[in-house]
Write the structure tokens for this entry.
Amino acid sequence: YPALVNHNGRVDIELIAEQEKAHALHQQGLNRLLMLGMPSPVNYLEQKLPNKAKLGLYFNPFGQIKALIDDCILAGIDALSHEFQAQHELVIRDKESFDRCLDHVRANINESVLAIAQQVETGLTLAHQCQKKMKGKVSLDMVAGLNHIKQHLGTLVYPGFVAEVGFARLADWNRYIKALARRLEKLPVDPNRDRLQQITLDKVEQAYAAVLNKYHADKVPAELAEVRWMIEELRVSLFAQQLGTAYPISAKRVLSVLEAY
């Protein structure tokens, strides 16, 4: 299956054996080509982002702000290119459709990246506050809970998380960080309850890991990959129920989905 493949900024056409992998790589390569073919929205962000939001982006725990901004830009391009392809019911495979898509992205990228950066800033600011709270001495009955929270935060904020999470899911991503913060608040009040909830979560995560182990990393079915987000919703229901979940969720429901694999 032919695909555009991104190699550190250089995009080549390659033949990929698996269709699903080819489709994913092609989209990534397309996004990179679109990025190379248009002016950067960075200056627009500089003008439009409030100072507070600019400061929040510096809470990126991976240092360089440029890498985070590029990640936001890629997320915007990905959302807009998907939007264009869905609207026109096509997959971009020729210059004419690419040029039309590029026009669409150019026309909308500034506002899209601004919206993404604002969402990212909100989440990173809260994540930074959580990290500060987790420093220093803690009582023994909180150690396990804090370790789980730290590990969880690392699955929500990492290099490249913006494009991987995607524009459409950033509001949920923020809710997951809020749920993590709520768990952190409640942990000192009732560490035993936190431990019991974690036991439920562990069973689901272990089952998910066991199913994922059946597949090569780049051959995981899309529906199975979505279980990751079901588990995030389960976390919300266990540790911050008042925030609400996107749909009814329980450990039993997640496990029943996994049984199909």
